[in-house]
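Human:
Care to share another protein and its fold?

Assistant:
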Amino acid sequence: MKYALLPVIMAGGSGTRLWPLSRALYPKQFLVLQGNQSLFQQAHLRLQALGSDDIEVSKPCVVGNEEHRFLVLDQLRELKGEPSSLLLEPVGRNTAPAVTLAALQATADGSDPILVVTPADQTVTNEAAYTAALQAAVRAAASGDIVILGITPDRPETGFGYIRTGAADADGARAVAAFVEKPNLETAKSYLADGGYFWNSGMFVMKASRWLAALEHFRPDIAKATRESFAVRTTDAQFVRPGKAEFANVPSESVDYAVMEQCPSHPESGFTVRMVPLDAGWSDLGAWDAVWQVSEHDEKGNASQGDALFQNSSNTLVHATSRLVAAVGLDNVVVVETPDAVLVADRNSSQDVKKIVSTLDSKARSEGTLHRRVHRPWGWYDSIDSGPRFQVKRIMVKPKASLSLQMHHHRAEHWIVVSGTAEVTNGDKVLMLSENQSTYIPLGTVHRLVNPGTIPLEIIEVQSGSYLGEDDIVRFQDNYGRSA
């Protein structure tokens, strides 16, 4: 028997827990914390590797939001992949509605694949064990069970929810007796000694129709409202946009509260949850301390990424992105350096980083939302210097990409080509500029920048004027749906 598997990658996120590396517009799942692949890319590759003689894996269904849609496409294209669909939530409504959107999309053509639902921001160190466990879960879900992946605990952890299970079946799966809230330390120690408790990974496997039926049974309000939003969806290539007003009416609820925890409590419902153990070096990277735990350490327990030096320091994490960071006389500390913000924290307090982000938001500061380098669907820009009435940006435009046809009311711009070829619309003229050539865009002039070549185009842009904010843009034509 051949099982049709649809990977569902949950790629939403607020970018608070790994600040300042993660930001609201560049959250954790898109970060490269080690090696050369982001957490999202790692999740995609792990899921594609689940194929076997009896399991056929399709392109992933990704659930995210509008602001991250081009990040998703770009990171998949780096792996020569693409999504089967990219479901864009108009507003955040937690995981139960998000999974329901994926199930509705999966069954829209009359098929009924097995969904393997996973967050995009987790990591594992033993991919062979991960593959074996997920394949076992797929086969168990084919019978109609809802299957959750339970992490074999290696310490008394108080930051995770737990799953209480019964004895293992012949195939290694266990019946789920109950879901348990995050315990205190003494209770967590007793769970570890008992052996029948596992961490809740947030990964689960079930047929699309089975999820929809369970949600209809336990939370018909969520099922009804989500169906109404999906019914008025619009589709643009791979982008699927549920009805915004309708989705705003969907109750916000997690998968666990909506369905998972209900099944063991109501055995008469006929919905059974089983658990497959996963012992694969899993981490949800919920804070910088978790990043330190999964990193390679030197003989004193230090871990680093980027240009870092340690002197008389131990059990410390340094993540440097743009310059040398030297740590002297530190113990149990996290140091994260980015071009516009630096975090220094006790490792044991790294969960409180999100409070810094809340403070930034309350003060309307941009450091909680954007990096200095801002990614756009056409490439990126980096604000490298600024002062009264001027700003300097480094701009990269992808091959064959273009910025919008636009004008500014309050600023003029000078463009100098650093590498590549630029096609510039400047008023009623169209210019071709190559390395070391430049042009001047007067205030109020309609203009456009295009990369007609096959290599990235880089320019330096010098802005001058009375107001230099990003909202001083009037768009006339745009390839990305942003024109006025």
Remarks:
- The longest strand covers residues 197-207.
